[in-house]
Fold this protein.
Amino acid sequence: MEVLSLRAVNRATLARQLLIERDDRTAESAVEHLVGMQAQAPFPPYTGLWTRLAGFDPAALADALLARRVVRVVLMRGTVHLVTAADACFLRPLVQVIMDRDLRTNVQHARHLSEVDVDKVAGAAREALEDEALTAKELGTALAARWPSVPPGSLAHAARGSLTLVQVPPRAVWGRSGQTRYRTVEHWLGRAVDPAPDPARLVLRYLGAFGPASVADLQTWSGLTRLREVVDPLRPRLRVFADDSGRELFDLPDAPRPPADLPVPVRFLPEFDNLLLSHADRTRVLSEEHRKRLFSVKNGVFPGTFLVDGFVRGEWRVTKERKAATLTITPWAKVTKKDTAALVREGARMLEFAAADAQTRDVVLAQNGR
């Protein structure tokens, strides 16, 4: 069995993630290729596409949201993702088991829902959302009229877990703001979720965006279990490798696997980028030391990060004050003068994108944060 070194796995992953050369595909096509983008915060996907696509215009993604070609919906790992309309309908039934499990075990809500017919709550929620988009608070209040002994927040949680609810614009539209309001996917898209989606297709899509990868990696990304039984029948269609630790890695036969020594540019990743969340073994892009640092942040909110030679080497933040914007780059490890200069140049470009209305922009290199 061919062994792929850590750097070979890194380069292959970067190629799938469109992080070696900026791609010329459309925003919608990129979202489809990436099998969605982590989107619990409204605007990181814009930065994620800017760093991956040539000439990315945020209006293109905003227009796709407004035209209902892409949507925000709870999917993999039970978190909000930005996906194409077709993928919302394909993916949600595959991962519905995650939401069902949460309804039984959620620390805040499960005990309040233990004596409630969740299917009836879902039916009532569907009716409440038929004529207008509602916030979770508004939906919970509407449902509480029929279940007055259950906290409204728990009723809204039951609706979100049972139904495929889309977060509708102007939420996450570039340059605008708005509360999180919901409609059912059937109403918003005029189509139902797929009645019998093929889990094998899920595996192949994942490998195209995140491979080469192990079964454990696939399960970490999706939040699903028992995927070995889906992967094993696909072996005749896949390449099988081993990593430096002997773990079995699966891949599409014709997917790009660049040379391990391929030079790669510095790249800025947004908060919550799926590159950092979609593998059980994150060392392909993130050292164990830096993983502990990144995932120890309070409230589960971690900063944007940057890649040097394909690996996370630090964090970045943009702060704005009146008409001034500052990008602060904080290395977590030693960075050469050449790479530092590249980071400053790329950071200046990103600041033009992230703070286009600022009259003054500064890129600041903080002291090594180790």
Notes: The chain has 15 helices and twelve strands. The first strand starts at residue 37 and ends at 38. The two ends are 38 Å apart (CA to CA). The mean pLDDT is 95.
